[in-house]
């Protein structure tokens, strides 16, 4: 019973960040499924977690692995629908936010996988460069380069799409 409560607390604490990373990597429509897969895997393998790295590092790696699995599965399916609409608090504002999210999602999809992962881990998960290097297995300088290139490519794509800062 105590383990169940601890796991529930773990899910409550980490699910929003896992969902943000999954939404950027696989799209908002598939993110819920990825989150479920991540926490099934975490539950299954938590007792074998060796503490060689921080828990958050391990969790991000599990999340990226689940995202890659979902993307590979999607390759054989027809194209998915566009992003889900924003919650309708203020219809005009929600529509604008949905458009920006859709454009950002499209822009992120144009990035090479390594750049998309690095920028998502930095900007959405708030990880520092060293943590990203550990998760991805890349050198620190490579991580910095990927993030810089991703930011430049996103800026260029979004400006071309009419999104201004």
UniProtKB/TrEMBL annotation:
Keyword terms of this UniProt record: DNA-binding, Sigma factor, Transcription, Transcription regulation
Regions annotated as coiled coil: none
RNA polymerase sigma factor 70 region 4 type domain boundaries: 101-154
Family: Belongs to the sigma-70 factor family. ECF subfamily.
NCBIfam families reported for this sequence: sigma70-ECF (TIGR02937)
Classification lineage: Bacteria, Thermotogati, Deinococcota, Deinococci, Deinococcales
UniProt xrefs under InterPro entries: RNA_pol_sigma-70-like, RNA_pol_sigma-70_dom, RNA_pol_sigma70_r2, RNA_pol_sigma70_r4_t2, RNA_pol_sigma_r2, RNA_pol_sigma_r3/r4-like, WH-like_DNA-bd_sf
PANTHER family on file: RNA POLYMERASE ECF-TYPE SIGMA FACTO, RNA POLYMERASE SIGMA FACTOR HI_1459-RELATED
Name of the protein: RNA polymerase sigma factor
UniProt keyword annotation of Transcription regulation present: yes
UniProt domain RNA polymerase sigma-70 region: residue ranges: 10-75
